[in-house]
């Protein structure tokens, strides 16, 4: 069943005129014309899998039945899910403990529910206790937990630590003539990539999450990461951020599990961190150009121009290591969850590995962990166009015939 639920610091001054950028973004964002299906698997907490089953865990990718709209993309967060339809409307489901789903309450949302009164949406990001929405026109809205004195204030970018139960426009970006291109959410900080390639951060400064050399003073507004001139892509985990710039990966924030990929000997130090962006200069990536990055709760992965796949973190690899099991194919997409990884090859095959007790590996109930990448055989005949990895659930979009 589906229903609608009714309901001063500045960024950098280098952004283009908002009118010019608006036309550019709008012209490049068109509704999907190709029919698509949605598959989900993993732990079905508070309906996050959008399935009618009463099973707690769905061990293999399963078709979501009877969606009353055309699927454009899906996002799996730590505890919630969101679907964008072909018209740019957003439907959400999940735990919603901090009101991050933007429906004006903090109760679980166990049925796909449309967020009302939004302009057409281009992207949704889901964090542990917050959410962010980028519209087709490049405006940024955020909702959920705004932080605390203990965890850090300002992670929603509204100049305070207040909780917002409905999506609220981040007005400082409008005032500074900035448009959002990408956004990622940590447990207590937010990172935004503007259409000009500038990286902005706000929220808790502990463990260097903001990338500006500060570890004791939180930011209430989005501020530029000064030592990173520009970026092509951003990704973030619980307490760290990665940025991709001209084929080189930079990381900052907490590094206690090697999630930044910079290496620090054989010791795992709970206080390890990088206060400013530091490039990953590992031997494995030498003379290679990275084209895509992905992050999970405490690990990360990347793809190179040749389609090679590398990953690191969760105290297993302190620097990038190549995934040998997929060298026979070209990897075109990768997503990371909580201690597991998904990869999509150019021939539309999904590979997974890592911790799978929550069902996220998608290869059946007999496999709780995979040390090597393995193909999800039940999806071998499907044309997968998108993958998404939450902390305990996963999804993919499949082109329908």
UniProtKB/TrEMBL annotation:
Residues in the signal sequence: none
Keyword Ubl conjugation: no
Positions of RCC repeats: 36-87, 88-137, 138-196, 197-247, 247-306, 307-347, 348-400
Keyword annotations of the record: Repeat
Keyword Repeat: yes
A Pfam family the protein falls into: RCC1
Protein name: Uncharacterized protein
Phylogenetic classification of the source organism: Eukaryota, Sar, Stramenopiles, Ochrophyta, Bacillariophyta
């Amino acid at each position: 069943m589906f229903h609608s639920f009714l309901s001063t610091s500045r960024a950098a001054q280098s952004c283009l005129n908002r009118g010019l950028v608006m036309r550019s973004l709008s012209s490049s964002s068109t509704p999907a014309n190709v029919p698509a299906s949605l598959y989900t698997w993993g732990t079905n907490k508070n309906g996050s899998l959008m399935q009618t089953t009463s099973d707690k865990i769905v061990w293999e990718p399963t078709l979501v039945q009877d969606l009353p709209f055309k699927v454009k993309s899906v996002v799996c967060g730590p505890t919630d899910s969101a679907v964008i339809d072909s018209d740019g409307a957003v439907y959400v489901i999940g735990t919603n403990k901090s009101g991050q789903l933007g429906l004006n309450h903090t109760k679980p949302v166990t049925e796909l529910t449309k967020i009302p009164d939004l302009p057409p949406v281009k992207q949704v990001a889901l964090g542990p206790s917050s959410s962010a929405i980028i519209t087709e026109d490049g405006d940024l809205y955020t909702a959920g937990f705004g932080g605390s004195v203990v965890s850090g204030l300002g992670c929603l970018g509204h100049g305070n630590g207040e909780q917002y139960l409905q999506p609220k426009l981040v007005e400082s970006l409008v005032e500074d003539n900035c448009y959002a291109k990408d956004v990622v959410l940590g447990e207590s900080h937010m990172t935004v990539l503007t259409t000009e390639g500038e990286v902005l951060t706000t929220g808790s400064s502990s463990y260097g999450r903001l990338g500006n050399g500060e570890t004791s003073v939180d930011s209430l507004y989005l501020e530029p990461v000064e030592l990173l001139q520009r970026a092509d892509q951003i990704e973030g985990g619980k307490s760290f951020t990665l940025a991709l710039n001209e084929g080189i990966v930079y990381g900052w924030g907490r590094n206690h599990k090697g999630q930044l990929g910079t290496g620090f000997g054989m010791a795992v130090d709970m206080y390890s961190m990088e206060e400013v962006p530091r490039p990953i200069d590992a031997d494995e990536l030498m003379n290679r150009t990275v084209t895509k990055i992905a992050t999970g709760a405490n690990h990360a992965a990347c793809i190179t121009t040749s389609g090679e796949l590398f990953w690191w973190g969760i105290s297993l690899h302190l620097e990038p290591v190549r995934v040998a099991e997929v060298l026979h194919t070209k990897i075109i997409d990768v997503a990371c969850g909580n201690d597991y990884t998904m990869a999509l090859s150019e021939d539309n095959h999904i590979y997974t590995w890592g911790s799978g007790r929550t069902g996220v590996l998608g290869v059946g109930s007999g496999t709780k962990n995979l040390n090597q990448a393995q193909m999800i055989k039940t999806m071998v005949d499907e044309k997968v166009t998108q993958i998404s990895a939450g902390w305990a659930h996963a999804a993919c979009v499949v082109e329908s015939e």
